[in-house]
From TrEMBL:
InterPro entries: Cyt_c-like_dom (IPR009056), Cyt_c-like_dom_sf (IPR036909), Cyt_c_1A/1B (IPR002327). The lineage of its organism: Bacteria, Pseudomonadati, Pseudomonadota, Betaproteobacteria, Burkholderiales. This is Cytochrome c family protein. It comes from Massilia norwichensis. PROSITE patterns: CYTC (PS51007), PROKAR_LIPOPROTEIN (PS51257). Keywords: Electron transport, Heme, Iron, Metal-binding, Signal, Transport. Gene3D superfamilies: Cytochrome c-like domain. SUPFAM superfamilies: Cytochrome c.
Length: 128
């Protein structure tokens, strides 16, 4: 019995370390999900556009509108105002929502991960 409990704990720990833990919709899970975004996007007090635009104050912002990033013509012409629905659609399949976007990303298929990422991004909503 002891061995099977220890084996189960070891398996759970290795799954967590490998990033295979079950998804949640909280900001802590969203922070983990954001790590795949962080190579191009920044959030926080000193966030700046770089390879991708900074994502502070994202919700309610018009797509293609931050002054410190050179957006594609497609993104600027998209007419999107970011909210949970539009961001979810974009994260599922960026090219489908905005054909011609410069964002090269395969998408996130797990809706719980998208919701968690949105919760995380909301923590930076008041930063502009």
């Amino acid at each position: 019995m002891k061995m099977s409990v220890l084996s189960a704990l070891a398996l759970a720990a290795s799954a967590t370390l490998a990033g295979c833990a079950p998804s949640g919709t909280d900001a802590a899970t969203g922070e983990r999900v954001f790590k795949q975004c962080a190579s191009c996007h920044q959030v926080g007090l000193n966030a700046r556009g770089g390879f991708g635009p900074q994502l502070n104050g994202l919700f309610g912002r018009r797509a293609g509108a931050t002054p410190d990033f050179a957006y594609s013509d497609a993104m600027q012409a998209s007419g999107i105002v970011w909210d949970e629905r539009s961001l979810s659609a974009f994260l599922h399949d960026p090219d489908k929502l905005v054909p011609g976007t410069k964002m090269r990303f395969w998408g996130i298929r797990d809706e719980n991960e998208i919701k968690a990422l949105q919760a995380y991004l909301r923590t930076f909503q008041d930063l502009r």
